[in-house]
Amino acid sequence: MIYLLALGIAVLIGFFSLRLIMKDRLNFSLSLFLAAALGLGVVGQIIFYLQILGNNFNHFLPPLISLVLLGCLFWKNKTSLPISKLILKNWSLLVLLVLALVFWIEAHFYPMGGWDAWSCWNLKAKFIYLGQERWKDMFAPILWRSNTGYPLALPTINVWFWQWTGLSESIPMLTAIVLTFLTAGVLLLGLQELKVSRLYSALITLSVFSLALNITLSISQYSDILFSLYLLCAFVCYLLSIELSDERLLMPTAIFIGLMCFTKNEGLAAGCILTSLILLRRPKKPWTFISTVFLSALPMVIFVLALMPKSQAFINGLTSAQKPSDAARMGYIFFNTLFEFLRPKWNGLWILCLIGLAVSVKKTFKGELAVIALFLVCYMTIVLAYYQINTFFEISWWMGCTIDRTIYILMPTAFLWMGLSLFKKDA
Amino acid sequence: MRRVILILFILLTAVNFGQISLQILENQRLQGGVHLHNLGDQFKGLEPIFNHMPMAGYYTDKPIERPMVIAQFEQAQYVLAPTVLDLNHTDYPLVLFDCSSPEVALNKIKELGFQPVKANNLGIILAFNPQAKNP
Q1: Of B24, B70, B82, which has the smallest distance from its Cβ to A134's Cβ?
Q2: For A207, which residue in chain B has the nearest alpha carbon?
Q3: Is the separation of the CB atoms in A251 and A240 below 8 Å?
Q4: Do A203 and B78 touch (CB under 8 A)?
Q5: Is the CB of A165 inside 8 Å of chain B's CB atoms?
Q6: Domain limits of chain A?
Q7: H helix and E strand count, chain A
Q8: Binary contact (A349, B12; C-beta < 8 A)
Q9: To 5 degrees, how large is the angle CA A411–CA A108–CA A99?
Q10: Pick from A119, A127, A347: CB nearest B12
Q11: Taking the domains of chain B in order of start, what are their residue ranges?
Q12: What is the least distance, in Å, from the CA of B116 to any CA of chain A?
């Protein structure tokens, strides 16, 4: 119950923030899902700023500041939560209930999550929550195995819940379920709001989120699902800004891009690419857009400048004589990535996605959908270039551990693209 | 063509649900055994002893190239955080011994001149190093 209260406060902060920007322009169900994603990011950032300023975790201030912020937003909106709109008439929401049940059951088999959960993400949360003035020990070089250079969005969200419930191993598990549920919800309702029928959007969401590999990766308590969620939210808001011809929606787009930057280092790369691509489309108020992205990504800027230790797992293969980056490595990266899409663990989902995009090729690269295509190409190019340049790890081991996660992060956005290309009503 | 893709999506979803149902049944069958994700259970209960200790040693004679060995160390680190564990370094007041057998661990403790403080039935022994300076 206390977990739900903490989640509810985050959702309300997100909801009233969105309402302040958009009034009631957005579909109520979709705005609830976007609000939850936004609210969790906001409370996580509150924890981060307090930690930086106080250099010690304060159990009293985050709830106080969050409640004051919620009060201010409520007062500014001069409206309550329109509970009457909660009467659900959309049958496709049943899809989310089914998926939530599956996520719930599966997550309980992995109470501590996957390897990176205990060695990286949840470890950082424990340092923030219990470390007192020694919380920065999480960046100690001795902990190099724990990816000390990864940012703190997911750990701070888990700390938000811990401060309400007390330290509990089940909290990161619940957070992973909630984040997966939100991603599925934003995909389903985002597609519907962008004029894809309930049947098609429900089928796309079901097929993506019922895949065993996706469920395992989603409930592993890694930051990948948070990255995936914010990327999807950013694209849904951006596409809606064009669909509804409403530039106000660029504000939540910018906020989600900034939040994404703090999820993983790759999130920062994704944020820079997406910001550039949107700016190339010449929004009416480019400086408002850039400054919103910057403000929302400020925790990542602070993290990079003041906290992030130098990576000990990096060798520049372009300059290293002992571990050079060679053509054989490039060939391996290229072909391994290509074959990854065809591997049986994806159950042919990527092949189906490619067929869908190929069938609707005239729409696939047209207008605003070209932004998704360009983003995916640029992002994958940067990730693959990093595999090529950093020769610290043996490439077959490294790609074996990570390439499926890289692709998985992009999957909801790729299926949003495919769904809009193929099934959008005015197509 | 759209109809064909729609049918393929329906088939794929059915396959996915069949697969995840089998996975759930398999996980239920395996429940109760020691898996990768509950290796850290062996270190639970030690947290109060490490309270306010910034660093501690962690000694193992097992090959650290083996994923299960390093996973166990990483989970020990998670359970005992914010204390930082130094793998295979023993110059700390408290050192955890996670050895191939309790006999090997006790011999090593004796060889180093440490005093065993606590042991559990899974072979993890906590020892005190009297020569170590307080951090």
Answers
A1: B82
A2: B13
A3: no
A4: no
A5: no
A6: 2-80+91-308
A7: 20, 0
A8: yes
A9: 45
A10: A347
A11: 1-31, 36-128
A12: 25
Contact status, residue B124 vs residue B83, Cβ threshold 8 Å: no
Assign residue A198 a region: left if phi > 0, alpha if psi is -120 to 50, beta otherwise? alpha
pLDDT in tens, chain A (427 residues): 899 999 999 999 999 999 999 887 788 899 999 999 999 999 999 999 999 999 989 889 999 999 999 999 988 887 666 666 665 678 889 999 999 999 999 998 888 888 888 899 999 999 999 998 999 999 999 998 888 999 999 999 999 999 999 988 899 999 999 999 999 999 999 999 999 999 999 999 999 999 999 999 999 999 999 999 999 999 999 999 999 999 999 999 999 999 999 999 999 999 999 999 999 998 889 999 999 999 999 999 999 999 999 888 889 999 988 888 889 999 999 999 999 999 999 999 999 999 999 999 888 898 889 999 999 999 999 999 999 999 998 999 999 989 999 999 999 999 999 999 999 886 4
The torsion angle over the Cα atoms of residues A160, A162, A166 and A168, rounded to 10 degrees, is: 170
Binary contact (A347, B15; C-beta < 8 A):
yes
- Residue type at A265? N
- Between CA A40 and CA A218 the distance in angstroms is 17
Q: Is A123 near chain B, with CB under 8 Å?
A: yes
Locus of tokens 């958009």: A22
Q: Which chain B residues contact residue A219 at CB under 8 A?
A: none
3-state secondary structure of B62: coil
Cβ neighbours of A352 in B, within 8 Å: 5, 8-9, 12
Question: Which amino acid belongs to residue A36?
Answer: A
Q: How far apart are CA A63 and CA A50, in angstroms?
A: 11
- Report the interhelical angle of A61-77 vs A28-54 (nearest 10°): 140
Please name the residue of chain A whose CA is at the shortest distance from the CA of residue B28: A109
ipTM confidence: 0.89
The beta-carbon contacts of A137-141 under 8 Å, at least 24 apart in sequence, are: A137/B54, A137/B82, A137/B84, A138/B82, A139/A307, A139/A308, A139/A309, A140/B84, A141/A309, A141/A312
Residue A119 to residue B74, Cβ atoms within 8 A: yes
